Each structure stands twice: as C-alpha cells, then as structure tokens.
Design the sequence.
C-alpha cells in the first residue's frame, strides 16, 4: 500500500494551518481560557512534537484538530485543512473528517478499544462508517497488509482486545488511524501507559510509518525526551499559548523562551554534576480562569521585564523557522530594554 | 501530571484545587455546592428537608398530635375536613339560644354518629338516637332541646317538616384527615405513625449495619476460608427474596416491634457486608496500608485508623437506602397482616385496614398513609442517591 | 468453547451446591430454630398438651435439632414435601398448581421492567442533563418508592372501579376455566390451543398486576441501567470511536448498549428475586392465585408444611435462576468466553 507521496518536506504547502485559535470552557466556577490565540502550521510529512505541562492546553489542541471539543466550549479562529475551515463543518463533514482526514491515537489502548468487538470488526466498522467505496473492494486484504506491516499476525485479527498485549493493542490503534489514509495523525500521550521497551518499539514504528506513508504526526506529550528522539519540530505550550516553535535541534540546543529553557533544564541528565542540584522551575501553573495579565509566564520568569506584566507579546519568528512568544526578542514602544537579536 | 483517560480536562484538577483552597466557610461551601453539584444538590436537599420534617414530627409527636392515636374520639369514617357539627333547635327557640347557657340542658345526638366530644364538653346529659329522623322527631316533640348533627349530613335533616332551625354551624373540631373505621383521628395516627415507622426502620437499619459492617470488616481483612464462607453465605442471603424471609421470620417470632425490626434487618445485612468488604479489599491494596504495616502498626489499629474512615461515605449511602427499603418492607408486612400489633399506630397497618373499606368509598384511609410512606421512602432514597453521587463523583461531564 | 468458559461454568455449577445448602439451612433456621414454638404458632393457645405433643411428633419436632436438620435436608433433596396440613393434598401438587400463575405474572412484569430499563437507560444517558433525563430520573425513584400494594390498589380503584376498563381480581373471569393445561400459563396455553377468547381474557387480567409489579421494579431497574450506561459512555473507547467518525447514535446503541448490557445481565438474577418478593404483595392485592399468595394464605391457615415447602421452593428457584444467569453471562462476556 505504499503510496507514492512526495517525501520532501520543505517548501510544500502546509498540510494544516491553525489561525488565531481560541478555546474557552464554561465551567461551574468560571470561564477557562484553555487555548488563547494559537497560530502555527503543520507541514506535510513531518513529526511535530507538542510539549507542555498539565493544563497547558495541548490535549485541548489535539481534540480541536479533530473538531472534538465539547459543544459547550467557545471556539474562535480557524483550522484550515484542504482549503476549508474544519471548525465550520456540519455534522456530516465532521464525521468525514474524523478518521479519514485526521485520525487520533489515544493514551490507553486497552480502554480505547471496544471490549466486545473483535479487532477486524473495529477496522471494518471504520471503513463502513466512512462509506469508503473506493477502498472497500480490497478492504480485507488492505487491512491484513496494514496489520502485517505493523507487526500484527493475521491470525490475531479475529481476537478480542483483551487477548492482545499492550503493545499490540497500540499497534491496532495505529492501524485504525491509518486504515483510511489520513494525512494527519494526532497521538495524544500515545506511549505514556506503555513500558519503556514497548514504547521504544512503538516509536520506531511511528517513524517508519511516517517515512513510508508520508503522514504527518502530532505527538502530544509531557515527556521531552520522547520528542527529542522522535520529532522533527517541537512546539512548546504554556498556559494555553504557544511559547516556542522550531526544529528539534534548534530548540534543544538553543531554547529561546525562558520557559523552554527551564523545561529543558529540569530534564534529569545522567551527566549531572555532584554539586548541581536538579533544577525545578519556581512557581506553579497559573489559573486559566483568571490568567496573569500580559505574558502568562511572567510571574515565574527569571527574565521578566515590566512590560511582560502589561502587554502580551506576539508569536514571532526570532530567527528563520523558530518562533518565540517573548518580549526578550521583540520591540515595543513601551519597552525600554533592547531586544535580543538571535544570530544563526 | 494527569494520568486519566482522554476525557480528562486538565483544568478539572485546577478547579478542584481552586474550590478547596479558597478557604470559604462551611456555609459558603454548602451554598457553593449548589453550583458545583447541580441537580444532585437539589435532590439531596429536598430529601433532607422532608426527613427533617418527619424527624420533627417523630420527636414532637406528643405535642403535635391533637388526639390520642388509639383513642376513639369521633364518629368513624368522617371524611377529611369533616367533623364539624350543627346545632339545631326548634324554630320557636331559634332566637333564644345562648351557647354559654347550654350547660345542664339535655341534648340529642345520634347514636354512634355524632361526636361525643362536643356534647361532653357541655354537659353530661346526652340522649342518643338511632337516626336523623328519630332525632328530629324527638327534638320537635320536646324530648330534647338541642341536637348536634354532623355538618355533612345537613341535607338529610328534615328541618322544615319538623320546624327546626340550624342556629350554629362549625361547632366542635373538624378532622383535617378524617377518621378511620374506629373513629380515630387520622392526623394523630399519621403523626404517631411516623414515630413507629421511623423507629422500626432505624432500629432495623442499625441492626443490619452493625452486623453487616462488622462481618464485612472481618471478612475483608482476614480473607482466606473465613472470607470465602462468609461471602458465600451473604451472597446466598442477598439473592433470596427479602420479603419472603421477613414473612417467615415474623410468622415464627410473632408480632411485636422488635421482632419486625429484626426480621426486616436480616434482609439488609448482606448489602452492608458487601460494600464494606469491597472497600476493605480495595484499601488493603493501597500502598499506605502496607506502609503502615511495615512500620509495625497493629492490625486493629490499621483497621480503625485507615480503613474505617474511608469506608464511612459508602456506609452512609447504604444506610440511607436501607432505611428507604426497610420502610417499604415493613409496610408490606403490615399489609399482609404480619406487621405490628393493632395497638401501635402504624402507617402500614392503616393501609391494610383501609384496603378493606375502600369498597365503601372511604378513600382517605389508604391514600394518606400511602402517600406518606412513598414520600418518606422517596426522601431517604433521594438523599442516599445524591450523597452517593456527591461522595463518589463520576468523571466530569462538561 | 474455550477452557476459560468451561472452567467458569464448572465453578458456577459447583458453587450452586453450597449456595443451595446455605439457603436451605437458612430456611431451616428460621422455621425451626428461631424462638417461637412452631407447635404453639400453629395450634395457638387453647391447645392441650396432648395436641401439642401429637403435633410435634407428626412434624418430627420432638427429635433433636441435628436430626431434624437431616430430615429436612433429605426431604428437600428428594423434593418430598409431604402433605398439606389443612388440605387433603400433597404439598408438591399444591405447588404445581399455584406456581405457574406466579411464573406468568413474573414473565409479563419482566417485559415491563425490561422495556422501562432500556428506554430510560439509553434515552437518559444520551441526552444527559436534559429535562427529559431529570424527569426520568425522578420518575424512576418515585416509582420504586411506592409500596407495590398501594400502587396496585390505586390501579384497582381507578382502572377497575372508576373507569371499569380492566378486571381487578384473579386470572380469568370467574367461571372461565381453561380446558387444557399444558404449561399452566394461560396465555401460552391459549395460544397453543388457538383459543383466542381465553387469550384475551387472560391478558386483560394480567394487565394491572403486571403493570403494578413491573412499574415499581422497573423504576429501580431503570435507575441501574441508566447508571451503567453513563459509566459505559464515559469510557475511552467511545471517545476513540467518535474520533473515527462513528455516529453518535451508533455509539450509544451499538457500542454503548452492547457493553452496558453485560453487567446488567448480572443484575437480572437479583431483579428476579425482587420480582418474586414483589409478586407476593401483588398476588395478595389482586387475589392472584400464585405461590406468593399461597404462602401468605397458608400462614394464616397454619398449614405449616405447605408454608415451609413453598419457601424452600422459592429458594431453589432463585438459586436456579441465578445459575442460569451466571452461565449466560459467561457466554456473552468475551473476556470469559475467549
């Protein structure tokens, strides 16, 4: 089933454009600003990591890409895929989108599969629901090929989920994500519940899939090391906003945003000096009901300036292909301090 | 770090901390609960309100009840609102009637139909008559000077024929809920009945809970053969039709409040047992009990300090639902005729009596107790259910 | 059939034996060991010592408790219940006469219960927090808080007396006796023999009692179904399914209900016990000639043997139903079957 996709990544039209996305939840004690003014693009055939702490909004963003936010949520902005705003789709359009154009892999494969449905029924149902006539003729053989490609034996496809191992189940999930040739896969904490060995195998597979089928994968996780291994680009989220976005090597070698810096510093490193203590970022994640004014990170930021508490910075390209949302790298009439110019 | 499934909204943790951190007082938290828990809160409050009312009724029964629930205070089968009486005299006397001077006069009342009470208040000289016509004739003939007749019979009195006039209306007391087949006031029976119902239900719930919880704790904690045997016994008991067991027990033990309470309670022991045992098993697996053990804590103190407090929310819920069901079971027993003896005012008993007189059209005998039993049982159920939702909330549903 | 299933069924079968034993023992304890002299309870005051002794001897009550127990057990196993004390019949025959009526009542009530459960569960869970959902919830709680016999009486008053639409007593219009008795269930027998009039008459008599029992129990069942559905619909695989584009309706009915159905099956056994308990009251209210009413009548009749045997019979039936339900569960739960 190897499709002849163009495997070069750069200079293609972006696969998906997220523009000015705002998501608000109405809860019993107030309105939560879960995502605030997020804008970025997803390139075709890339693996984009989305990191952040709990409450950063990364899960919400993942759901937004499939238009799976609760109906009570207030959503503004656009998510453009194939020249249409998926947030404007009607119910049938949304159903068509999910699984066929964008698919999702979940954290816990045991609970994400229907315990009373066999694996092949899962797959057939997905095809059926999308009335994928063009693929339906070879449906069975296609599925079998796909599963074999993923490393699941043909004999196992009539099994029930509980009969499979954790790693296998996750592979089934990946299979479900691929069966309709979606261009974008959202992996929401896909390996968090697996043990390290299984996780490693799965990562290898994800990479292979990406290379072979040319799909884009968004990997949502709080595990930075995972991103380092897997992703091409990284987006760092904090308190509902994008802090930084850029190539993996760039972000890891030279993080620009103070939050990214802190995040990378707190990853335990085997080569830690005896005298160096494990770094912990001071403070706590802010309340999203009443977020800090201006830059949401400023209460915890070691480099905070007066302007940070007043005005929001914008998400700008500090150097080619690396965006930062920080006053350190921007000018403003009210900002006396000089901005840092990032050299290549 | 949220390890929950994808349904979790990271912000839920946030919201939880916000609510408790704000350090609002108890009342504030109570009112906040209304927003936080929504419908469950209303259910719980509604249930609790009814229960407090019933509780007050129970405690203050002697004060609240106008009459002795077992005393024959009036004519039987007075419908709700009835009981007032008319004072009738001869036309010629109509303008001379002075209520205060009714002392020492001779009155006519209809045998077994008029309320003794009014007449007794005024004088001891009463003559009873068989029916309205006889009474009217006697009055006309001068054998008596005053006659008391139930207001509801007004249309049947041959007034004009005998030259009689009604001079006073609304004498005596009316009975808001009427009287039963023996002339007992329903309001008083209802109020005192609350006491009975609550006593039996509470007694039985206390008994079941004590036995059930103890056995559950032992079984869960000790495991092994003891656990197996006890669990099997409880499962068997649980699957047996409860009412049948209660019937058998009462049939053997005989009537009486304690017997009924015990009979009813046996049915619910397995429920407490299961819930407590389940909780014990869960908590046993949690690390901190192991930690305590490794630090050398004694089994009994582990039991008391760690397990018991965690088990209490579930117990409260089961207790509530238990009472709700016990009330219904007891009523069922009374209905069959195996309930409390007749000298104890009891809603179930009134229901069973009322059934027999339904044919005669006396609907209020069964309606009121029936509604009340439903209401009280309902309140306990609602309280139990909403407490259950509040104490063991499901995942968010935003 | 997988090994696991085989083992499961075997375990269930084996467990039934001690369970039955315990049930029989409980009945024994209640009827023989509890304080309260059965002889006095039956013969009442005014009986002479001779009469009491004679009674005790005939009942085997003069033997020691362990001896009595053995006798009791052996009788139970052989289903030899002896003779009725107030009728000239074998108890087993009495049971055979009256039990089918209870079965028929239970069956039709179950239809009502199941219907209420499914409707309320699926509907309320899907449209959660809607006014309809709250109405159903409140209605369910109210319904199962109503004393069964009271509801029955209300139905009798309204539909029977006031409106005159439906009969309020018995299984058939008096004088109407079915010619052939195959199952003992009048509706089934009528259909088999093609006796349409009999069928209609039987159904008409079934409506009120079945509705009474069904509605009250249905309230409890609906509540449980709803709770189960909610739990199921919150599970991850439902979200995962939605993420693949499966329609909401398919999620609720195909995925949700099928999964919720499995734990509900396990509740059915208990529901049946509640059904039998409720049947006692329903039969008393509607003068329905079933086993429940037999027990009550014979208690007042002092027909000790019949009472004892009927209660035992109930116990055996309950154990049997539980076993069947457990086995059924093994077949429909893939985690056991495979």
Sequence:
């Amino acid at each position: 089933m190897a499709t002849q996709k163009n495997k070069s990544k750069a200079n293609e039209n972006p696969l998906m454009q997220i523009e000015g996305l705002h998501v608000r939840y109405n809860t019993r004690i107030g309105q939560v600003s879960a995502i605030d003014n997020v804008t970025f693009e997803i390139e075709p055939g890339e693996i984009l990591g989305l990191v952040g702490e709990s409450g950063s909004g990364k899960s919400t963003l993942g759901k937004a890409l499939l238009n799976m936010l609760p109906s009570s949520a207030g959503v503004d902005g656009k998510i453009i895929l194939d020249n249409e705003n998926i947030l404007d789709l009607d119910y049938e359009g949304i159903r068509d989108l999910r699984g066929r154009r964008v698919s999702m892999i979940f954290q816990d494969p045991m609970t994400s599969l229907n315990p009373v449905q066999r694996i092949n029924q899962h797959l057939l149902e997905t095809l059926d629901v999308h009335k994928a006539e063009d693929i339906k003729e070879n449906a069975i053989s296609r599925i079998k090929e796909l599963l074999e490609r993923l490393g699941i034996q043909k004999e196992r496809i009539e099994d029930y989920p509980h009969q499979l191992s954790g790693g296998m189940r996750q592979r089934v999930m990946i299979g479900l994500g691929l069966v309709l040739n979606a261009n974008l896969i959202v992996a929401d904490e896909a390996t968090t519940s697996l043990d390290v060995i299984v996780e490693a195998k799965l990562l290898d597979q994800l990479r292979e899939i990406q290379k072979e089928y040319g799909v884009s994968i968004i990997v949502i996780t709080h595990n930075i090391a995972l991103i380092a291994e897997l992703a091409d680009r990284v987006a760092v989220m904090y308190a509902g906003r994008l802090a930084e976005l850029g190539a993996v090597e760039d972000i890891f070698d030279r993080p620009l945003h103070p939050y990214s810096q802190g995040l990378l510093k707190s990853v335990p490193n085997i080569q830690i000096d005896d005298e160096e203590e494990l770094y912990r970022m001071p403070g706590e994640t802010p309340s999203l009901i009443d977020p800090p004014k201006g830059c949401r990170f400023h209460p915890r930021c070691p480099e905070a300036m007066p302007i940070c508490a007043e005005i929001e910075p914008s998400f700008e390209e500090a150097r080619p292909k690396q965006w930062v949302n920080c006053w350190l790298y921007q000018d403003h009439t009210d900002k006396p301090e000089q901005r840092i110019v990032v050299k290549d | 770090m949220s390890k929950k499934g994808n349904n979790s909204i990271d912000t839920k943790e946030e919201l939880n901390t916000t609510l408790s951190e704000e350090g609002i007082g108890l009342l504030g938290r109570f009112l906040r609960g209304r927003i936080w828990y929504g419908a469950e809160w209303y259910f719980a409050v509604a249930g609790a309100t009814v229960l407090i009312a019933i509780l007050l009724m129970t405690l203050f029964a002697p004060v609240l009840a106008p009459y002795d629930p077992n005393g024959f205070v009036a004519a039987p089968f007075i419908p709700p609102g009835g009981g007032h009486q008319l004072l009738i005299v001869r036309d010629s006397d109509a303008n001379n009637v002075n209520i205060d001077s009714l002392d020492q006069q001779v009155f006519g009342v209809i045998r077994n139909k008029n309320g003794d009470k009014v007449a007794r208040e005024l004088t001891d000289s009463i003559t009873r008559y068989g029916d309205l016509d006889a009474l009217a004739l006697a009055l006309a003939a001068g054998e008596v000077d005053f006659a008391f007749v139930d207001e509801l019979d007004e249309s049947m009195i041959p007034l004009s024929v005998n030259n009689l006039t009604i001079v006073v209306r609304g004498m005596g007391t009316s009975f808001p809920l009427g009287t039963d087949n023996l002339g007992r006031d329903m309001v008083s029976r209802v109020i005192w009945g609350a006491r009975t119902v609550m006593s039996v239900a509470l007694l039985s719930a206390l008994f079941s809970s004590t036995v059930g919880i103890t056995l559950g704790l032992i079984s869960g904690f000790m495991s092994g053969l003891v656990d197996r045997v006890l669990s099997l016994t409880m499962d068997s008991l649980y699957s047996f039709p409860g009412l049948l067991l209660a019937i058998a027990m009462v049939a053997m033990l005989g009537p009486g409040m304690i017997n009924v309470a015990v009979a009813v309670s046996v049915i619910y022991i397995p429920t407490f047992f299961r819930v407590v045992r389940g909780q014990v098993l869960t908590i046993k697996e949690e690390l901190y009990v192991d930690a305590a053990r490794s630090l050398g804590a004694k089994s009994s103190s582990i039991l008391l300090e760690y397990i018991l407090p965690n088990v209490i929310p579930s117990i409260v819920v089961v207790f509530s639902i238990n009472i709700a069901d016990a009330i219904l079971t007891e009523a069922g027993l009374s209905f069959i005729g195996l309930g409390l003896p007749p000298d104890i005012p009891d809603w179930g008993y009134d229901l069973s009596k009322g059934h027999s007189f339904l044919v005669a059209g006396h609907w209020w005998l069964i309606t009121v107790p029936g509604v009340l039993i439903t209401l009280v049982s309902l309140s306990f159920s609602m309280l139990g259910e909403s407490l259950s939702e509040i104490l063991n909330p499901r995942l968010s549903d935003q | 059939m997988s090994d696991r299933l085989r083992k499961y069924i075997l375990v269930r079968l084996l467990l039934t034996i001690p369970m039955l034993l315990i049930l029989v023992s409980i009945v024994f304890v209640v009827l023989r060991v509890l304080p309260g002299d059965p002889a006095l309870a039956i013969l009442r005051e005014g009986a002479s010592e001779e009469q009491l002794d004679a009674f005790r001897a005939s009942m085997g009550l003069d033997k020691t408790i362990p001896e009595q127990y053995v006798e009791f057990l052996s009788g139970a196993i052989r289903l030899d219940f002896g003779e009725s004390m107030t009728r000239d019949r074998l108890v087993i025959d009495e049971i055979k006469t009256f039990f089918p009526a209870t079965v028929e009542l239970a069956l039709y009530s179950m239809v009502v219960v199941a219907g209420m459960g499914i409707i309320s569960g699926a509907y309320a869970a899907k449209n959660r927090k809607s006014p309809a959902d709250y109405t159903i919830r409140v209605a369910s709680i109210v319904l199962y808080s109503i004393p069964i016999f009271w509801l029955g009486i209300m139905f009798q008053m309204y539909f029977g007396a006031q409106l005159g639409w439906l009969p309020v007593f018995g299984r058939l219009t008096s004088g109407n006796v079915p010619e052939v008795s195959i199952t003992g269930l009048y509706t089934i027998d009528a259909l088999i023999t093609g006796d349409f009039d009999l069928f209609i008459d039987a159904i008409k008599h079934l409506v009120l009692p079945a509705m009474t029992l069904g509605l009250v129990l249905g309230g409890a069942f609906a509540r449980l179904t709803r709770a189960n559905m909610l739990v199921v619909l919150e599970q991850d695989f439902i979200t995962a399914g939605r993420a693949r584009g499966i329609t909401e309706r398919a999620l609720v009915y195909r995925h949700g209900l099928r999964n919720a159905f499995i734990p509900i099956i396990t509740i059915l056994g208990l529901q049946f016990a509640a059904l039998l308990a409720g049947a006692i009251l329903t039969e008393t209210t509607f003068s329905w000639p079933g086993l429940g009413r037999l027990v009550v009548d014979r208690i007042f009749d002092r027909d000790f043997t019949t009472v004892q045997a009927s209660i035992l019979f109930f116990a055996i039936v309950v154990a049997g139903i539980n076993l069947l339900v457990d086995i059924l569960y093994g077949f429909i739960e893939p985690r056991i079957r495979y």
Chain A has one domain: 2-101+182-338. The domain at 2-101+182-338 of chain A is CATH 3.40.50.300 (Rossmann fold).
